[in-house]
């Protein structure tokens, strides 16, 4: 079975501190995966490497059918390859309307000249309304993103991710700051999205991970400690020691 | 989204209307075409002010919308002026040289004429040879092309180096200042080929139009400046109205996020930096024939800083704000520095505005930045807030801090 993303033996050192240590990780084409691990385990840094923000000192990140190495490509290029990313802290364009945020994310030609002459087609507008309905922001399309509640911003960012139609979604702590109902809805959106693409969710909250009901990778000090079902990894002695036991 | 470009941006129509009324008003009050209430030299001041408004629009695009605080756009403005100045000076000198040589018994050869022009133009810097940069000075078309190409190329090369290395923020501003300083120091040298600190002069005289009085010439340039401002404004408004505008505002607010959406941030910055440099070049090419003279002091780093101050005072991130800032500050500045403002005698000290104006301007800049970041343009929000109660029915937002509906009801 060919994998969508194969991360092999990557390491990265910040000022002598090894944040990622010989980490390997695979994910298939339509798979939901949770990554858990204590603070500072390297979860965000792992996403930084896959999305081109941080260059690893060694290792390869192979992508897609052709197994192309993503290392050395810039962020924009990697995003165009089909990797979308949601940040830990919601980052939407607060000064612009929800609609403009979604339009900007829609999968279209990204080149400056094409964008300059671009006009939304009916299909584009329909897609925006669809997405808005999916993330519960149909009534907020004209509002500035900055006026949204924290949870709504998180959703808007997820909506922007879906608008990009990526093959792989990297979602960093989506449930942070959400109410229990909002969390539930977020789980639904992610589970739905993973039916047609690969989704990697970084999360702290065990309840949330349990509801995702998927394979779990436990990260600790920059490498994989255990991998398997949630019950499997939570039964692991080492995992209990470093993470759950505390 | 389905409404037209103008429909979505009513401020464009208002701006064009105000500009048209202003232009017609000045025309009917001018020496040439009207009652003569406005002196020719003041028509020139107004025409120059319109050019400054145009370069301020460019500055607003790059700074107010894309968040790149370029402190070098006046260098592009000056380069535009130099490019048109070369043609004006060359052709004008040719006329003078030709008419004086015609009186000689033997008709001069082409080479003698060119040598004569060279002597006239470069005598002040102790030379008579035409430097290579003057190669196209006899062609109006080519020099007009250079008005946009030279600033554009400089901006492209500079931008390519700076943006590719991801220089941002204050470091980029410092780099643009360094570029500006280097350019002006270079032009100050006598062997720069552009007459060193003498600069180019006599630019108000149009070749072949000796018998047309400056009353008329000033109006032509005034109209030309008004037209250029109108076109530049609409062009800038078009750039920022669509998705391109969304992307550059996104770059201003969070450039990393824009990258992860798949947009090549560097490409967008480079595009905008180059285009705005070209607009600045056009503005400069219209400005200096009205000023009559250009020299390297015009390109001094401080000029580009003033440009940023105008845009900040007018209100960045809105095009009419840039225009208001440039017009307001430059006219007030002319008033204070032109010796027209009466000195204030405090008994123990006399405030002379020529000296104190800069301090007043600096102080206003600090106050605006601290207390009214929207600038003068922010005043329009108060007005439009009252006239567009469209927000009725919209919910008030998650936290009740955003009192949009109440504001609209006033
Ligand atoms: N740019 C950086 N410079 C220095 N240290 C960093 C940098 N990014 C991350 N780190 C360090 O690497 C470790 C892993 O960080 P991170 O990936 O954010 O952890 P997590 O997301 O799992 O909480 C932390 O100790 C953090 O301080
Ligand atoms: Mg993290």
UniProtKB/TrEMBL annotation, chain A:
MF term (GO), any: ATP binding
Matching CDD domains: ABC_Mj1267_LivG_branched
Keyword entries, A-Z: ATP-binding, Nucleotide-binding, Transport
InterPro entries: AAA+_ATPase, ABC_AA/LPS_Transport, ABC_transporter-like_ATP-bd, ABC_transptr_urea_ATP-bd_UrtD, P-loop_NTPase
Gene Ontology CC: plasma membrane
Residue ranges occupied by any ABC transporter domain in the UniProt entry: 5-246
Domain of life: Bacteria
Protein's name according to its UniProt entry: Urea ABC transporter ATP-binding protein UrtD
Organism: Maritimibacter harenae
Automatic annotation (TrEMBL), chain B:
Source organism, top-level taxon: Bacteria
Keywords recorded for this protein, A-Z: Cell membrane, Membrane, Transmembrane, Transmembrane helix
Claim: Transmembrane helix is one of the keywords in the record: yes
A GO cellular component entry from the record: plasma membrane
Bilayer-spanning residue ranges: 12-33, 71-90, 140-163, 170-188, 220-240, 267-287, 293-312, 319-336, 356-383
Region annotation Disordered: where it falls in the sequence: 391-410
Membrane topology (UniProt): Multi-pass membrane protein
Protein name: Urea ABC transporter permease subunit UrtC
Database matches in InterPro entries: ABC_transp_permease (IPR001851), ABC_transptr_urea_perm_UrtC (IPR017778), LivM-like (IPR043428)
Subcellular location: Cell membrane
Main location (coarse class): membrane
Organism: Maritimibacter harenae
GO molecular function annotation: branched-chain amino acid transmembrane transporter activity
């Amino acid at each position: 079975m060919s994998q969508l993303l194969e991360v092999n033996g990557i390491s990265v050192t910040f000022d002598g501190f090894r944040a990622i240590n010989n980490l390997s990780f695979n994910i298939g084409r339509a798979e939901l995966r949770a990554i858990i691990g204590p603070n500072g385990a390297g979860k965000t840094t792992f996403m930084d490497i896959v999305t081109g923000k941080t260059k690893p000192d060694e290792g390869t990140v192979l992508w897609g059918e052709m197994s192309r190495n993503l290392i050395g490509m810039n962020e924009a290029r990697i995003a165009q390859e089909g990797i979308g990313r949601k940040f830990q802290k919601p980052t939407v364009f607060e000064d612009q309307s929800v609609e403009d945020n979604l339009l900007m994310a829609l999968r279209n030609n990204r080149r400056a000249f094409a964008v300059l002459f671009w006009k939304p087609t009916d299909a584009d507008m329909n897609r925006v309304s669809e997405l808005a309905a999916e993330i519960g922001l149909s009534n907020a399309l004209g509002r500035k993103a900055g006026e949204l509640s924290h949870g709504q911003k998180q959703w808007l960012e997820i909506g922007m991710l879906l608008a990009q139609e990526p093959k792989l979604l990297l979602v960093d702590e989506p449930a942070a700051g959400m109410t229990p109902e909002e969390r539930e809805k977020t789980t639904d959106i992610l589970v739905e999205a993973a039916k047609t693409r690969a989704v990697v969710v970084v999360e702290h909250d065990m309840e949330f991970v349990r509801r995702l009901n998927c394979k779990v990778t436990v990260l600790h000090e920059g490498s994989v400690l255990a991998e398997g079902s949630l019950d499997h990894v939570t039964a692991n002695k080492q995992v209990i020691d470093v993470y759950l036991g505390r | 989204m389905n409404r037209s470009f103008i429909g979505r941006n009513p401020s464009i129509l208002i701006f064009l209307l105000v500009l048209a009324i202003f232009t017609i008003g000045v025309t009917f009050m001018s020496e040439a075409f009207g009652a003569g209430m406005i002196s020719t030299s003041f028509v020139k001041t107004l025409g120059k002010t319109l050019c400054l408004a145009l370069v301020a629009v460019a500055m607003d695009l790059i700074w107010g919308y894309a968040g790149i605080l370029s402190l070098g756009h006046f260098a592009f403005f000056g380069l535009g002026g130099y490019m048109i100045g070369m043609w004006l000076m060359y052709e004008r000198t040719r006329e003078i040289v030709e008419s004086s040589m015609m009186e000689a018994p033997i008709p001069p050869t082409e080479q003698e004429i060119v040598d004569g022009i060279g002597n006239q133009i470069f005598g002040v810097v102790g030379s008579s040879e035409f430097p290579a940069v003057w190669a196209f000075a006899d062609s109006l078309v080519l020099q007009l092309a250079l008005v946009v190409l030279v600033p554009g190329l400089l901006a492209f090369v500079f931008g390519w180096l700076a943006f590719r290395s991801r220089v941002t923020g204050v470091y980029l501003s410092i780099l643009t200042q360094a570029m500006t300083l280097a350019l002006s120091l270079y032009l100050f040298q006598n062997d720069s080929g552009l007459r060193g600190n003498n600069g180019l002069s006599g630019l108000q005289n149009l070749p072949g139009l000796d018998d047309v009085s400056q009353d008329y010439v000033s109006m032509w340039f005034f109209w030309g400046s008004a037209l250029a401002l109108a076109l530049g404004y609409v062009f800038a408004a078009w750039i920022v109205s669509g998705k391109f505008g969304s992307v550059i505002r996104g770059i201003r607010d969070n450039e990393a996020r824009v990258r992860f959406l798949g947009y090549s941030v560097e490409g967008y910055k480079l595009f905008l930096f180059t285009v705005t440099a070209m607009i600045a070049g056009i503005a400069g090419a219209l400005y200096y024939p009205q000023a009559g003279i250009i020299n390297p002091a015009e390109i001094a780093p401080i000029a580009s800083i003033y440009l940023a101050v105008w845009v900040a005072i007018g209100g960045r991130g809105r095009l009419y704000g840039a225009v208001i800032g440039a017009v307001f500050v430059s006219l007030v500045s002319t008033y204070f520095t032109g010796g027209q403002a009466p000195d204030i005698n405090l008994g123990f000290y006399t405030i002379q505005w020529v000296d104190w104006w800069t301090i007043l301007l600096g102080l206003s800049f600090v106050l605006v930045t601290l207390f009214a970041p929207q600038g003068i343009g922010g005043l329009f929000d108060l007005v439009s807030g009252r006239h567009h109660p469209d927000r009725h029915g919209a919910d008030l937002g998650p936290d009740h801090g955003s009192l949009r509906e109440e504001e609209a009801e006033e």
